[in-house]
């Protein structure tokens, strides 16, 4: 009876976490959209100040963000280290610094920020309610709420939270609480006016040996690109920190390089989230053969320089535009393969399996699971061990630590 009461209490708390995180996600997301719209209208005037904006971000973290610089890496440390916790100051810092990054044209995402928002708020509640033995559960519940509140894909968000901390392990016991938090966060943010991206996909794929072979080729390439993004991001960050050890010098020099590169390309095409590329892919607008690699490289450089933001929305843009190119080369339906790219590159770069499948279902329609599932499995299989999240552990590593 005691366990039933405790579980019911945790479900109720998960509902509250979802509502709180959903409201915060809505604020963050709507301000981010307003900032992005303002940048689009004043792109040329704002872009030269990207390096100065980067210096402001570094100053904020130096002044008030000690211990929070790792961002998503800190969230993984908290999930896998018993004594670690998410500092309260992470919440305002990551939101403000991401708004600054997007205002001045940095190429970055928002998912990592939303997950950090959820983890931070859930951690505050966990400590306030003195659930010291449930820190990991609260963290995953917060992650699910953060992801779902921003993207409004509650099933995908729930599985993302329970499978992302340790590669190859799914925390099924946390799933009921994650689902409650994810649905309440999604409902709250939607009720508060944050819109969800959906594209009811009408194209179908007919399976034949030839089509399956082409899908296998596309899936393997999606997996390799996701792996390449994760590997290049890690290497570039390492090289940048070694060659430019002073963070102010690093963000100024790389910020200047980014400003020149952004000006070289079509104005505002590769700045910000990349939702413009996603919209172009699914509306039939012109997609360049180099759009995916340009977005990939500029996102890596932005994050390596020290600007803040996530990786997932740029990964969606990279996968979608790559899908358009591959579909044209392989003679496959463009929109269907663009949708596969949307979820497959994300799967490969994050080392998650169930979350991207359900993202595909919740964004494009459940009827397409028949080819979303094998495509994600193929991409996941070709993605190696590299991930965009440095704090991720392999299940074998977790077992070894438990045995010590």
From TrEMBL:
- Keywords for this protein: Membrane, Transmembrane, Transmembrane helix
A GO molecular function term, named singly, is: chloride transmembrane transporter activity
Compartments where located? Membrane
List the InterPro entries. Cl-channel_core, ClC, ClC-type_chloride_channel
Q: GO terms for CC?
A: membrane
Q: Where are the transmembrane segments?
A: 42-61, 137-162, 174-192, 212-233, 245-264, 296-318, 324-345, 357-382
- The answer, when asked if Transport is one of the entry's keywords, is no
**What is the protein's membrane topology class?**
Multi-pass membrane protein
| Any Pfam family the entry gives | Voltage_CLC
Q: Which superkingdom?
A: Bacteria
Q: What is this protein called?
A: Voltage-gated chloride channel protein
Species source reads Vagococcus entomophilus
């Amino acid at each position: 009876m005691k366990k039933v009461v405790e579980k019911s209490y945790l479900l109720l708390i998960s509902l509250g976490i979802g509502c709180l995180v959903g409201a915060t996600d809505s604020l963050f997301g709507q301000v981010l959209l307003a900032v992005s719209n303002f940048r689009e209208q004043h792109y040329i005037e704002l872009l030269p100040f990207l390096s100065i904006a980067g210096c402001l971000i570094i100053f904020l973290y130096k002044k008030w963000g000690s211990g929070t610089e790792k961002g998503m890496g800190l969230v993984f440390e908290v999930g896998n280290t018993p004594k670690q916790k998410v500092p309260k100051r992470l919440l305002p810092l990551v939101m403000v610094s991401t708004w600054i990054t997007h205002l001045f044209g940095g190429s970055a995402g928002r998912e990592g920020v939303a997950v950090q928002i959820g983890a931070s708020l859930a951690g505050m509640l966990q400590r306030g309610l003195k659930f010291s033995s449930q820190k990991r559960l609260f963290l995953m519940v917060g992650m699910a709420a953060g992801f779902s509140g921003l993207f409004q894909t509650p099933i995908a968000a729930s599985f993302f939270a329970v499978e992302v901390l340790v590669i190859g392990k799914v925390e099924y016991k946390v799933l009921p609480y994650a689902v409650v938090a994810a649905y309440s966060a999604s409902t709250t943010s939607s009720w508060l006016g944050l819109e969800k991206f959906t594209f009811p996909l009408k194209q179908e794929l007919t399976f034949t040996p030839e089509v399956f072979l082409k899908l296998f080729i596309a899936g393997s390439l999606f997996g390799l690109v996701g792996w390449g993004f994760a590997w290049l991001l890690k290497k570039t960050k390492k090289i940048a920190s070694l060659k430019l050890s002073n963070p102010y010098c690093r963000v100024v020099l790389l910020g200047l390089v980014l400003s020149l590169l952004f000006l070289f390309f079509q104005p505002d095409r590769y700045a910000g989230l990349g939702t413009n590329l996603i919209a172009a892919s699914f509306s039939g607008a012109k997609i360049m053969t180099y759009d995916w690699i340009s977005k990939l490289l500029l996102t890596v450089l932005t994050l390596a320089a020290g600007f803040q933001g996530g990786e997932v929305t740029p990964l969606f843009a990279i996968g979608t535009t790559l899908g358009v190119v591959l579909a044209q080369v392989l003679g496959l339906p463009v929109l269907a393969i663009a949708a596969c790219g949307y979820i497959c590159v994300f799967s490969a770069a994050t080392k998650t399996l169930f979350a991207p499948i359900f993202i595909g279902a919740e964004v494009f329609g459940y009827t397409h699971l028949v080819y979303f599932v094998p495509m994600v499995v193929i991409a996941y299989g070709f993605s190696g061990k590299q991930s965009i999240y440095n704090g991720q552990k392999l299940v074998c590593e977790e077992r070894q630590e438990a045995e010590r």
